[in-house]
Amino acid sequence: MAVGNGRYFVTIDDPAVAVSCMSAGTAFVGQVENQIALGGAERFVILNTAGGFGPDIAIGDLAVVETAVRDDGISDHYLPPGDTVDADETLTETLLEAARTVQPRARRHISWTIPAVFRQTQPEVEHCINQGITVVESEIAALLAVCEARNVRAAAIVTILGVQPPPDDAPADWNNIASTQWDVFEAVVTALRSH
């Protein structure tokens, strides 16, 4: 959700879904820890925007992240050393079903979580593309690691705002992307309440 939209609210129906518009980056990890400590929080979902890599992803695509590359600087404080962390399988499938109600072509992706957006080099991008990584962002690996360490479920879904290499045609249609974000937000909340 938008960084300047610093709000927190809870749906009134049972089961309740809490929505928090937190700051970008891995700084939200403390918020996740607080929610777990308060009790009752069982699932965490990132719904955000991200960049995309390679020929098989386009601006406006919905990407459900099944695995995140741990280049974030936070996950190492919660999990043993490793290259990746996986999202919860059941929650990932729930998000994929919700995403496909908005965009039938939505699919699973591997994401590269880095601490500073727009700081990746071309050789790193080419390496990621060769490894099948199609998304780049700055939060997902941290969330998945914290939740795995605390034994709660986590998953993520993003809307692609830009791609590398950039397309030759017209720039992104921001109104369409905003509409997609709102539609997938409603679909995800509905899915979380029914599963």
Helix-residue proportion:
25-40%
The dominant shape is: globular
Strand order of the largest sheet: 3-7-6-4-8
Number of strands: 8
End-to-end separation in angstroms reads: 22 Å
CATH class: Alpha Beta
What name is given to the CATH topology? Rossmann fold
Q: Structural class of the helices, strands and pairings?
A: alpha/beta
Instruction: Give the name of the CATH superfamily.
Output: Nucleoside phosphorylase domain
| Main beta sheet | 5 strands, mixed, barrel
Query: C-alpha Rg, in Å?
Result: 16 Å
User: SSE order, as H and E?
Assistant: EEHEEEHEHEHEH
Task: Tell me what the structure shows.
With 195 residues, this protein is α/β, with parallel strands linked by helices. The chain has a single domain (8-194), classed as Rossmann fold. The protein has helices spanning 29-38, 89-102, 122-130, 140-149, 174-194; strands spanning 8-10, 18-20, 43-53, 62-70, 84-86, 107-113, 135-137, 153-164.
What descriptive keywords fit this protein?
195 residues, alpha/beta, disordered N terminus
Quick structural summary:
This protein has five helices and eight strands, in the order ββαβββαβαβαβα.
